[in-house]
Amino acid sequence: MENKLADDLKLTDEQRNKAKELRKASREKIKPLIDEMKALRKKMDEIRKENMTAFEELLTPEQKETFEKIKAERKAKHEKMMKKHHHRPMPPMPME
After folding, report:
1. Is residue 96 part of a domain?
2. pLDDT per residue as tens digits for the range 33-50
3. What are the respective helix, strand and coil percentages of the chain, to the nearest 5?
4. What average pLDDT does the chain have?
5. Alpha carbons 10 and 90: distance in angstroms, whole number
6. If exposure means fewest CB atoms within 10 Å of the residue's CB, which of 15, 16, 31, 54 is most exposed?
7. Rounded distance, CA 18 to CA 14, Å?
8. Domain hosting residue 40, numbered range
9. Could you give the CA distance from residue 49 to residue 45 in angstroms, rounded to a whole number?
C-alpha cells in the first residue's frame, strides 16, 4: 500500500526514503505502547474471566443451562455478523 501511495503521489526517491525513515521511527515509538496495550488487555481478560466465573457461581443449575444457551446464541450471531461483513482481524504491523 505504501508503494502504491508513493507511486500515486509520484514521490521522488528521496521522499520515499524519508517516508520510510518516518515510518520506522514511528513504529519504534509505538511498539512499547502496543506491548503495554497487550499486557493491559491480558489483565482485563483475566478480570473478565474471574467476574464471569463468580457470576456463574451465583446461578442455579437451571439458570446456568439457560445462560449457556444464551452465550451460544450470541456467539453464533457474532460469528454470522463477522462473516457477513467479511471482517478480518488486523494484520500485524509490518516490520522493516
Report:
1. no
2. 999 999 999 999 999 999
3. 80, 0, 20
4. 90
5. 28
6. 54
7. 6
8. 2-84
9. 6
